[in-house]
Design goal:
The protein has 312 residues and is mostly helical. It contains 15 helices and four strands. A two-stranded antiparallel sheet has the order 1-2. Strands 3-4 form a two-stranded antiparallel ribbon. The protein binds protoporphyrin IX containing FE and 2-acetamido-2-deoxy-beta-D-glucopyranose (NAG) (2 copies).
Length: 312
């Protein structure tokens, strides 16, 4: 695993999130598939009960889906892109496949894979103690994966500066508050050593004892099988500890600590660290905005029967 993973962002101008969101509706499946949402929820709860980290992995799948080519389940298509650096550390594909099989068993070709990702992300956050929200629905599934060049070109690595992060999110219609709130997703889950190596060995804006404890397991080169929690305090709880960690220079990724490094987002970090409900409400707002990025609607795309491949 070379440069490990990254945050993805479209550099090209895309349709503003608001134009498409009007076409999504939270009650879409009430009549054609009344048990759809409960089926997704119980499957997510079972998966998270078996392994808490799966909640983090499912949340991240929805994020990666939305940031490249819009929320169209392109991230689930198995193909030539599977070795793109940002995809190497994605997981949870089997859980999504299992949910899709259960939903297909009750309602054939009705619920899209892109909507399953959005609902599973919300249910994962709730399962780990975070806020709940109503998920707008009606995203259809893409026929094709994003090309390798598009994925690589649109990559914002964890080595990015605050300016680069703000710009990348801005291109997707997400403001700096959304950036800070969404980064709060790093209150759960794990990262591999190559993703934080540079930060712990070369950056100076890191707590020295924290850096030393990470270096004990993560060597300066290699270490691709070593992992550490993104939130060192409460790795399996969706809470606001991530922001308190940033205040004590215990962000795991360079891009995490950039949010509290003397720049324009410091006050937002302080607010979310001291006020859990301010974080919850900003996170919900930003998740809904992210879930509205360039969906396929109406007659665009299709409802896949299997999430890993377009329909024959
Ligand atoms: C600038 C933005 C971001 C960057 C640079 C970034 C980067 C990363 C990296 C490098 C990892 C670890 C990958 C690995 O080494 O295994 C990671 C994990 C994760 N990211 Fe992000 N990320 C960003 C934004 C987001 C957003 C917006 C979300 C969700 C709303 C998110 C959710 C997660 C989660 C939950 C994990 C842990 C996954 C697991 O344990 O399987 N990230 N991210
Ligand atoms: C890799 O990621 C991109 C964008 O996130 C997606 O379009 C592509 O289908 C993915 N490929 C696999 C095999 O997951
Ligand atoms: C630290 O920085 C040096 C000089 O830029 C670089 O050669 C080295 O690979 C970096 N170390 C890590 C662990 O990233």
């Amino acid at each position: 695993m070379a440069s490990a993973s990254s945050c993805l962002s479209l550099l090209l101008v895309v349709a503003p999130a608001s134009s498409a969101s009007a076409q999504l509706s939270s009650t879409l499946y009430d009549t054609p598939c009344p048990r759809a949402l409960a089926t997704i929820r119980s499957a997510v709860n079972a998966a998270v009960a078996q392994e808490a980290r799966m909640g983090a992995s499912l949340l991240r799948l929805h994020f990666h889906d939305c940031f490249v080519q819009g929320c169209d389940a392109s991230v689930l298509l198995a193909g030539n892109e599977q070795n793109d650096p940002p995809n190497l550390t994605l997981r949870g594909f089997n859980v999504i496949a299992n949910i899709k099989a259960q939903v297909e068993a009750i309602c054939k070709q009705t619920v899209s894979c892109a909507d399953i990702l959005a609902v599973a992300a919300r249910d994962s956050v709730v399962a780990l103690g975070g806020p709940s929200w109503t998920v707008p629905l009606g995203r259809r599934d893409s026929l094709k994966a994003a090309s390798t060049s598009m994925v690589l070109q649109n990559l914002i690595p964890p080595t990015s500066s605050l300016t680069q992060l703000i710009q990348g999110y801005g291109n997707l219609g997400l403001n700096p508050t959304d950036l800070v709130a969404l980064s709060g997703a790093h209150t759960i889950g794990q990262a591999h050593c190559p993703s934080y190596q540079d930060h712990i060995y070369n950056d100076t804006n890191i707590n020295q004892a924290f850096a030393a404890s990470l270096k004990a397991n993560c060597p300066a080169t290699g270490g691709s099988n070593v992992m550490a929690p993104l939130d060192t305090t409460t790795p399996n709880a969706f809470d606001n500890a991530y922001f308190k960690n940033l205040q004590s220079q215990k962000g795991l990724l360079h891009s995490d600590q950039e949010l509290f490094n003397g720049g324009s987002t410091d006050n937002t970090v302080r607010n979310f660290a001291s006020n859990p409900s301010a974080f919850s409400s900003a996170f919900v707002t930003a998740m809904i905005k992210m879930g509205n990025i360039s969906p396929l609607t109406g007659t665009q795309g299709q409802i896949r029967t299997t999430c890993s491949a377009a329909n024959p």
